[in-house]
Design brief:
By secondary structure, the chain is mainly alpha-helical. The chain is built from 2 helices and no strands. It is rod-shaped, with a radius of gyration of 32 Å. The mean pLDDT is 90.
Length: 140
């Protein structure tokens, strides 16, 4: 019986490699997005802490410092929101690239499975014919 050989095996390996690379790139993009979100959360926590400390404060310098901090937080939030928007766009692009790479790989895997099934069916048919020839030969 002949051994199964898929002619497009090198292409399938290449597509798997491309899929893995796309998955790595998607992971990096999601990680960058999560870091920006973490920075936003930290900034919000600091804002809440300063606001709580400033409640009921009567010292003008501390109130002025709190106002400066609020201005700083607002500016940082705007920067981080712009970065987050950009990161989301990049993440969606990477997700689309990963999905496309996955589809290419899956189509080749399905083709390989079909070819393997055809090979196995042909091998069984050949074996049955061989066994039939053997049994017929003995009795003649």
């Amino acid at each position: 019986m002949k051994k199964f050989k898929f002619e497009l095996e090198p292409l399938l390996r290449l597509r798997k490699y491309e899929q893995e690379q796309a998955q790595i790139e998607l992971g990096k993009a999601v990680s960058a997005e999560a870091k920006i979100q973490s920075d936003l959360d930290t900034l919000a926590g600091q804002y809440a802490a300063v606001k709580k400390m400033g409640e009921g404060e009567r010292d003008f310098t501390k109130i002025a410092e709190a106002q400066q901090f609020y201005s700083f937080v607002k500016g940082e939030q705007e920067k981080l929101f712009a970065q987050m928007a950009q990161a989301k766009i990049i993440t969606e692009e990477k997700r689309a690239a990963f999905k496309a790479a996955m589809q290419k790989t899956e189509s080749l895997k399905k083709l390989r499975e079909r070819k393997l099934e055809e090979h196995n069916a042909a091998a069984k048919k050949e074996e049955a014919k061989f066994l039939d020839d053997i049994s017929t030969y003995k009795y003649n």
